[in-house]
Design goal:
mainly alpha; single chain; 83 residues
């Protein structure tokens, strides 16, 4: 199985493409796009989220939503969303 570090560039590229198309994606969509298990996706998103914060970029991880709720996880919106 691929490591989180090896998945970050692939997932980031996938998310940038989805964001440019103005669409949301599910955790399963991300997993299928990079050929990994859905349980690996949150750890990969944590790395991408940290990079976005460090660089002052928009919340790229916020377009990843739950298949059931169609909402992003709060952990991936913070600190962009005030409480």
């Amino acid at each position: 199985m691929a490591t989180v570090e090896s998945l970050v560039p692939k997932v980031a590229t996938y998310l940038v493409t989805a964001a440019r198309q103005r669409r949301t994606v599910t955790y399963g969509d991300v997993a299928r796009a990079v050929d990994t298990h859905p349980r690996v996706v949150p750890k990969t998103l944590e790395v991408i989220r940290a990079t976005c914060i460090e660089q002052g970029w928009p919340a790229l991880t916020s377009i990843v939503v739950s298949a059931t709720t169609r909402k992003p996880g709060e952990a991936f919106l913070d600190p962009w969303v005030s409480r």
